[in-house]
Amino acid sequence: MKKVNSSPTMKDVAREAGVALGTVSKVVNGLPVREPYKHKVEDAIRKLDYHVNSYAQGFKSNRTDTVALLVPNLWDPFFSILTHHINRELQARRCRMFLCTTDFNPDLEQEYVTMLQNNKVDGIIGLTYNPQLEVPEGIPFVSIDRSMGPHIPCVASDNFQGGQMAAEKLADLGCTNVAFLRTGSSLNNEPNKRKAGFENGCLSRKLNYEMLILDDGEPYDKFDRFLAEHIECGRSYFDGIFCVTDKVAYHVIKTLRNLQIKVPEDVQVIGFDGIRQLGDLDPVCSSIVQPVEEIAQTCIGLLFREFPPGRLPLICLPVTYTYGGTTRE
Amino acid sequence: MKKVNSSPTMKDVAREAGVALGTVSKVVNGLPVREPYKHKVEDAIRKLDYHVNSYAQGFKSNRTDTVALLVPNLWDPFFSILTHHINRELQARRCRMFLCTTDFNPDLEQEYVTMLQNNKVDGIIGLTYNPQLEVPEGIPFVSIDRSMGPHIPCVASDNFQGGQMAAEKLADLGCTNVAFLRTGSSLNNEPNKRKAGFENGCLSRKLNYEMLILDDGEPYDKFDRFLAEHIECGRSYFDGIFCVTDKVAYHVIKTLRNLQIKVPEDVQVIGFDGIRQLGDLDPVCSSIVQPVEEIAQTCIGLLFREFPPGRLPLICLPVTYTYGGTTRE
DNA sequence: TTGTATGCGTTATCAT
DNA sequence: ATGATAACGCATACAA
Question: Cβ–Cβ of A247/B281 closer than 8 Å?
Answer without folding.
Answer: yes
